[in-house]
Protein: Glycine dehydrogenase (decarboxylating)
Amino acid sequence: MSTPTQHDAPAPDFVRRHVAPTEDDVAVMLKAVHQPSLEALLDAAVPGRIRADHPLELQAAPSEPAVIEELRAIAARNSVRTSMIGLGYYGTHTPAVIRRNILENPAWYTAYTPYQPEISQGRLEALLNFQTVVRDLTGLQTAGASLLDEATAVAEAMTLMRRGSKASADAVLLVDQHVMPQSIAVTRTRAVPLGIELVVADLRGVDDAASLRQAAGDRDVFGVVVQYPDASGRIVDWTALTQAAHEAGALVTAAADLLALTLLTAPGSWGADVAVGTTQRFGVPMGFGGPHAGYMSVRAGLERTMPGRLVGVSVDAAGNPAYRLALQTREQHIRREKATSNICTAQVLLAVMAAMYAVWHGPQGLTRIAREVHAKATALAASLRDAGAQVAEGDFFDTLTVTVAGRADDIRSGALEQGVNLWRVDADTVCLSVDETTTSQDLAAVATAFGARAPQYDAAALGEPDWADALRRTDDILTHPVFHSHQSETAMLRYLRTLADRDYALDRGMIPLGSCTMKLNATTEMEAITWPEFANLHPFAPADQTEGIRSIVADLEGWLAAITGYDSVSLQPNAGAQGEFAGLLAIAAYHRANGDHDRRVCLIPASAHGTNAASAVMAGLKVVVVKTAPTGEVDLEDLRVKIAQHGDTLAAVMVTYPSTHGVYEDTITELCELVHEAGGQVYVDGANLNALIGIAEPGSFGGDVSHLNLHKTFCIPHGGGGPGVGPVAVRSHLAPYLPNHPFAEEAGPKTGVGPISAAPYGSASILPISWAYVRLMGGQGLTDATRTAILSANYVAARLRDSYPVLYSGEDGLVAHECILDLRGLTKSSGITVDDVAKRLVDYGFHSPTMSFPVAGTLMVEPTESESLDELDRFCEAMIAIRAEIQQVEDGAVPAADSALRHAPHTAQSLTQDWEHPYSRAEAVYPAGVDPMRKYWAPVRRIDGAYGDRHLICSCPSPEAFED
Structure:
């Protein structure tokens, strides 16, 4: 038996595995930053007035196996029944090859948003597949790379139609009453602060401009939203309604079921301008509400007003096709308060899963699944009718609405006794949906509850649905070869591996992105998310069936309140941008409740992340920019001027702390006092919470509300740009205005601002990740992580300061958990740009730090606590070597235009071609310090972004395009 080591001690073992630097490493790093201890470093870097006066009292679990046992016990408190609730959430089979090789594969789940496209070609191709699926099935020209969920996609469609319509300014949004109720509720929440009026009416009989106007209460209409099939299950031919809307100058959005669209006429064919929905039933578990990838597609002419992200095809420096995010000038960090929506609204990992579900099944497989689903519903409808039940007439796909004359509760209880959840619409009506996972036994159980015989259907003899001719799809779908080439598991496995190999994720090396906190996502934390007790819960399941997952919600809410010093927390926001939106809605509602209806000005520092301004505009606030002082802090004199200028109209200030410039501003408490004295509220953006946990609490040093990023600070993986969870934390006076939900009274206060996500608890299925992280770390471990993150950033700054000026720092030259390297002087003297350095880092085996944010021409580096001293040194040595390459350009030894920096990244293929550069092939691909045994090869050369925007291609190109 081996001798036990200090790592065998159960309590700190996980902490030591998460916090990478050893005690010896810490000593080396402290020496480099000229500090005698970690505590001395904190005393020097962090203003004493904001320091917490008590330790973070959260008990750590004894070990990783102990946490798994706890999670098993919690999972056992959930009761997973067969769900036939529907309402946009359905059982689905996640192909094992997709579950294991995407959802459970760190090559996919630890990747970052593909802002560096040369090292993101795999996930960009997968997202292009996603866009192609959506485009083909909806029949509209351009599809985006995912949104958060169906309800928020409907809300985004509302604002897109408002922008695209030529209707009068006071025109209304007309919504069919059979749209999913959660979508109506979320859209109403979004509409109120924008001054948009929602009119909900029965639109089934609307077929001309006069009846359209009548349905809208004799008002002009800028947009119409319909569900296809609708929430009751009925399939309506919306052609006449669409023509009437267009005659009235309105646009039309169809919230459509993609599986049904394999059989149904595409919305684009009957004139819809926009299609939205969810891709959940394409292999993504219900997960008590998420995460799931929403979608949006639009007709020609609307693509440049789409929200979110769009993957396009461009060319690289060698002229080869290459993928990138297209139309990036739409992003809110560029457009700020002029942004049309918030870019941080994507579910990339889930979009990849849905796309690969379509690749795996192909058009024939998807159509077969859809036909079988419809056959089950048809057989059940026949059985119920034979027993005398009143099943709603009309064409349907998978959902039946049954009138039972006062027996709805009895029917629901009878089905529940058989292990099946149905949806009680009212005392007289039951709704039920079948799906891919529904078995003959499930159908028999439901029939029994109605007193009917077991339905019979022949899965081997599935015919065309018996629908009206106008509703039956006749065109081919998913004709691209990618949907016909990977139906064997061998082919699929190799395809997924090929794509993963083209990407750079945390499983390869450090991703030192400032403001993004790319830290370890430990395997134990991830383990529970695929357990059926969490994955297979319907978000609207009865509360007594979801006690386990809701206990995780309650624990996390309590822990996050303790960590931040706030009083109440909502976990409903399913992205950081949603958390910002929810917090600002709470502030606006608070002012209205106090009679301060004119308080609509939101002060935002010039250095703030663009999401702040975009969220403020969405919340109906007016953005006023506050200057940045030369030292990088908020200019308090300008703040005083702006406060005096706006007086009683001041609603809030939004600040990030530590600042976006990576320093602890010692003026933060004074800033809070100034705003509070003027009657405003203080929003502290939680993007940099990794620099505060255990040492300072935003809710205690002056904040009224913060959003947090569980996908940054609390270890939920970024997944290539989503999933995310952005809880909102508030002090007690704002708690009455947190989000709520019409289907879950316990999910928020009755006085809340309404739902901002489709599900009551947002992306609930990934909350066990953060729960496990906090439980494993405990208060001391979380504090140690913060201290080490600060040390690591200061170590990087100290090592690189002689090569690159550190733009902002506090006293003693110290930074917070990130630092900004200023390349502007080097660019002026050499012509080498921040882009050149970012791309050259790929040759050295690194993802670039954050480029040109918050200051153009700079790199913002955040190493986190999870990177070892060896990896920090490897990065620093790469940056120092790049500085030497820049020096060669400055000295005139190498022209900037023909330098290794300007031609980076270098591919393996480039070595086989003619070589006329002033540097060698070896210098190109094996620069100083690169280990040939762990070399990462970029799959493409530098990509021409402008070309891609001029030649917008946003679906899978033909194979001939690559041959050419």
User: Anything to note?
Assistant: Residues 291 and 763 are 5 Å apart (CA to CA). The two ends are 63 Å apart (CA to CA). The chain has 32 helices and 26 strands.
